[in-house]
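Structure tokens please, single chain.
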Amino acid sequence: MWKKEVHKLFLPKNKKTKALLIGISLAISASFIVAGCGKEQQQAQMQGAQVKVMQVIQQDTPMTSEFAGQIVGKDEVKVQTKVSGNVVEKYVQGGQWVEAGQPLYRIDDRQYTSAVWQAQANLAQAQATLSNAQNDLSRYQQLVQSNAISRQTYDNQLANVNAYQAAADANHAMLIKAQQDLADTTIYAPMSGKLAVDDVAVGTFATAGSTNLVTIGSASPVYAKFNVSETDYLEYMNALMQGGEQVKPVVTITLSDGTQYPLEGEIVESDRSLSANTGTLTMKALFDNPNGMLIPGMFARVRLSGQMIPNAVLVPQRAVQQLLGKSFVMVVNGDGKSEARTVQLGEKVGSYYVIKDGLTAADMVVVEGLSNLQEGVPLNVTVVTAEDMGFSLISDMTKFNSNAIAGSADKSEQ
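Here you go.
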């Protein structure tokens, strides 16, 4: 009984009192939460904003760019027959090396042999008719001089001789054509090179000027074909033309397994205009291939190196922020706080910008943690290197992806 009485003492006597007690309880809890958050914010401010910084680099820097490319043959021919017929003999196999003038195939020549005989007979007949007409013309010439025949008769015979001469000439041309067709039944290699494995088999019917019997291509030298964007082309040409004298670029390639080809190449061809589809310029670099290591169709990274920038000041591109047409970076000042520094940008070199003005090699720039970072904030600094961040002086604007390269190569050939 007494427990019930005690319990009543602690119970609210009405609903308003009960609500008031609940509100006081929530307010007390909220005050503790706010107090806790305030302490965490105060501790975070004392520790400083977490950022990664990197020392500004100053060194002689080559203008180097890298592009996705593909190896293509310098000379490649799809061998076709000039006459139609069934392939009756095959003298080579796919993948074989052949010399210029070496026989490759023979087409059934029976109809072409018959055509030669027919042309010979027609020519002989035309020549006999012409000979008789010439003999008559010789006699008519004597008779017309003695007025034994009329001048009209002589003129008619002269016209006949001219017509027979034309017929004989036409038959002679037909004989030459028939002899050429007969000779063309044997197909020879138009150049020295290696055959592809697309060779047709004996028994195939080959249509003149249409059927590809086999593809032959030279092994050395070969092209490394690649595409550059308009921006990259302009930046590179501006760098090469510094000082009013163009510097010849050094061209090297890295193969798909990461090995660098030991021989340097030379840019020998550049398209006359940008592609309307891709907005890129197609270029070709020529490489000697004495050991046949480079095979058409292989993918390669083409690297162009040219003008050297002495004592270039470099900062990572990700450290540069742009606002209202101006560029700036966050640096760590002498008090360990963030400081915005306006900079003048130069060329892009791989992962970096060349800084023309605004920084020195003694500065430390923020490369990570820039989101919502304001000037004058204490910094909790972690020093990193270019290797840690994956930065490189080699351009990574083109990813080495075989499908992408093949697609761009197909578009450029269309």
